[in-house]
Model the fold of this input.
Amino acid sequence: MEIVAAVFMDDIELRSVPGPSTRIDLAGVQFSAPAPAPVPVSIAPHLVVLVWNPPSGDELGALEVVFRPYEGDEEAEPLARNAQPLQIEPGKFNYRLVRAELMFEDYETVVAHCRIGDGPIRKVPYTLLPPVEG
Done:
């Protein structure tokens, strides 16, 4: 199995089109957001991971997402971790939603390290910005 894409977003909707084929509509794709309140603050952004299983692929796998601070990227203590099983028919696509409670002590960037099994890591940044005044 392979990760095709991973992004933070507000909403996801599936719809069928002739073929039969499926469309995945993502709304509010984002890589940053203003904090709902001054730090320290806890937020839970939604990450969607799109996965393809090649025709010769194994039907079973495991998705792991580890959230780490940007500074010290690989060596930093994880802020959160999510692991979930995957079962995708060979030759097909699927997706997984990942939501983690992240505690921010400052306005900074967190990186979601996404991988399937021992495969390559896909990194997705998410930056917490100061709250919007007004």
Notes: The chain has one domain: 2-13+23-129.
